[in-house]
Amino acid sequence: xxxxxxxxxxxxxxxxxxxxxASERAALEFMGSMKYDGYDRYMPGMRFMSSLVQWxxxxxxxxxxxxxxxxxxxxxxxxxxxxxxxVDLLYDSKIRPSLLDMATSETGMRxxxxxxAKVRExxxxxxxxxxxxxxxxxxxTDILRxxxxxxxxxxxxxxxxxGKKLKDMLEALRKDEKLKGIENPYFHxxxxxxxxxxxxxxxIRFDNEDGKYHGKxxxxxxxxxxxxxxxxxxxxxxxxxxxxxDLDEIQIDILFCIATEKxxxxxxxxxxxxxxxxxxxxxxxxxxxxxxxxxxxxxxxxKADKNLVDVLKKEKHFVKEAxxxxxxxxxKDDNPWLGFDECALPVVLAxxxxxxxxxxxxxxxERFHGLFPxxxxx
Length: 378
Prior knowledge:
The chain has 378 residues and is an alpha/beta fold. Helices cover 43% and strands 14% of the residues. It has helices spanning 3-14, 18-34, 48-58, 64-74, 80-107, 117-128, 141-148, 163-175, 216-224, 261-277, 297-304, 306-313, 320-323, 359-362; strands spanning 76-78, 130-134, 155-156, 189-197, 205-207, 212-214, 249-260, 283-294, 347-349. The strands form 3 sheets. A 5-stranded parallel β-sheet has the order 3-2-4-7-8. It starts with a helix and ends in a 16-residue tail after the last helix.
C-alpha cells in the first residue's frame, strides 16, 4: 500500500479533515520510518501505516480515537538497534563488574585496585572460566559473544547441549593459554542470558495441579546439581560435566536486557522457594541483573484506564481463539484481554510481540488483525 493511499484511508477511517491529517501524518510517518516499519513479523511489503489502517478499520468506530491515542502515546517499541545496545550493556555494566569483583577478591586486593596487574591476570582467568548460556532464541548470545570477546567454546545458545558439545567445551578450556598452570580446570561461574521477561513464569513457577516446580531455571539448576563422574565411565549428558565434581557452591548470574518489576519479584519468590526445598549436595546462590527495568506503573496505568479497558475487552476486539492456549492458562487469566498473566504491557519487541502485551496489539485472526502480529513460540 503506497503512502498516499494509506493516508487517504486513514483520514476516511478516523474522520479527519485535511488539517488534522496533515498534523497527524507527520508524526506517524516519523514513527514508522524510525522504528515501526522495522517490525520483523510484517509480511513482505507490509509497513506500519498500512497495518495501522487495517487495525483501526477492525476497531469499532466509536473506539478508534481511544485506540489511536493509545498507540500514539503509550506504545513502547524496542527496536533491533536498541536491543543490540542493551545486549552490549549486559557485559559492560553487569558481567564485567561482577568478574572484576571476583578477581579482586581472589587476589586479596582492595576494591580500588582493579587495575593491578595481578587483578587483571585473574580477571582473564575468571572470564574464560565463566559459562554463558542463552535461555531463548532471543538471547542474542552471538552479539554478546562478540561484544564481550568470549571464546566460542564457553557460550551455549541453549541449555540442553549434547554430550559431545560439553566435552569439546571442557577440552577447549583446558587447552586455553589463559589458564596455563592451572591443573585440570573447570567452569565455575554461570551466566544465564535472555532478552526480555514480563511475568517470569517461563523461568520458574509452581504448578498447583501437579505440585511441582517448572521452568527454564529449574531445569538448568537441576542439570548443574546433577553429580556425575564421566571419567568413571558414566555418560556425559548434564551441564554439571563442566563443573568440578566436588564443587560445593554454584554462583548463577541471571541477566536480562529488559524485565518488569513484576517478573523480578516473581522469579525471586519462586526461585527462593524452590531452592529451599530442593535436596542437593550443592548450594546454589544467584543474582538477578537487569539493564532496563520496566516499572509496574506502565501496566498499572493501563489497568486503571477504564475507557481503554472497555475497548480492550470488547468482544469484537478480543478474539479468544487467537489468544487463549494451554500455555496462556499457566498465568492468571481472569482478564485475558490484558495479556498473559494479566501483565497489561504496551510493549513490542522488534523481532516479535510478547504475549504479555495487550492482545489487541498482537492477536491475528480473520476478523481482527493485530497491529504488530505475533508469532507464537509455543
